[in-house]
Amino acid sequence: MNELLIKMQGLANRCQAILDAMSPPDVQVQRSTSHKTKIEYERQAQQLLQRARHVEGGLFAVVQSTRCVATFRKRLIALEHFLSSQQEQLTRQLNAPAVKAAEILHLQFLLQLKHLQALQRLRQEGLTGERAKRRSKRQSLAGLPANWRIALCKRAAGGRYLFSLIVLALTGCRPSELVHGIDVWRGKDETTGKLLIHFRIRGAKIKESQGQPLRTISYDTDDPHPLVVVVNELLDTQPEPRVFAQVRSAVNLTVEIRRLARSLWPKHKQPITAYCFRHQFAVDLKANGDDEATSRGLGHISAETRRVYGTTGQASKGHRLRPLQIDAERPVKPRRRGPYTKRRGDPKP
């Protein structure tokens, strides 16, 4: 029995060494993971491990069975979280005053080591097969007319999504944030005395070190942009000073946007979705020249994130949105610069 316990302790140490090598304590970034996310990691990891039993090449082959880099990375993250949790459970059993079913526990440690070795190899070699060509939502903007947002909102006139589409265009909010609801009202700026239209957004994807819990995007009521004019006229007719923009389903909103877009541009190859409004909003803000305002407007706290949202060349010529003010609850962290953070496409020094 003592000999078996020594073997298991050696296996436990080898497993823990692999986990520590993948996430060294000195460089590990503490991230909060929601309960829902943990459940999803566990579901996906167990599914991969179950498939690995019946596939030649085991876990390594199963994880490699994708052409999508994002899917590959998600599988690695799910496995790392699940195997880390498994390691904690097995270690607790090993350190218990009386080890029960020692032979079974020994087999579990052997299997744990096998899975961790496969995960270590996957992380070292990366996705080895043919990779699918990356499709970006911002690619959908190519070939659309400069006034595509206005045209799509006009096509939605008379429908239940018209106001939601206008708010989507003027704020670049996520569809899920429209499900939460967005406050719209007018108020005077205390500094300038100008009358502004405010859009207050409750952020999605919020964690301790991620996202903006609240952000407010404001336009001058004298802004001549057609969509701002429509909102101004709508507020004139409302008995209450505030209105509330909200949709019940983000999926239904995207279905309606796709339907409207197909009726307007049937030959456009890329799908037009709610996120196209977000990308167009981002490139308009980039073209306005305030990078930090772009991050605040998108609901980010990391300046790195805005890099995935198009280029200034995609800004709506003649129809660009120009918010007068963008406020957010948290400060924006500047982009890191250094030999290990430079990415393809960055300008040469």
Sequence-ordered SSE layout with sheet pairings:
Elements lengths: L1 H21 L12 H18 L5 H7 L4 H26 L7 H24 L22 H8 L6 H10 L3 H6 L1 E7 L6 E8 L11 E7 L5 H12 L4 E4 L4 H15 L9 H15 L2 H8 L26 E4 L21
Antiparallel strand pairs: 1-2, 1-4, 2-3, 3-5
Helix pairs in contact: 1-4, 1-5, 2-3, 2-4, 3-5, 4-5, 6-7, 7-11, 11-12
Overview features:
disordered C terminus, elongated, 49% helix, alpha+beta, 349 residues
Structural description of this entry:
With about 350 residues, the chain is α+β, with helices and mostly antiparallel strands. Helix content is about 50%, strand content about 10%. The protein has 12 helices and 5 strands. Strands 4-1-2-3-5 form a 5-stranded antiparallel sheet. Helix 1 packs antiparallel against helix 4, helix 3 (about 60-65) packs across helix 5 and helix 7 (about 160-170) packs parallel to helix 11 (about 275-290). Residues about 25-30 and about 340-349 have low confidence and may be disordered.
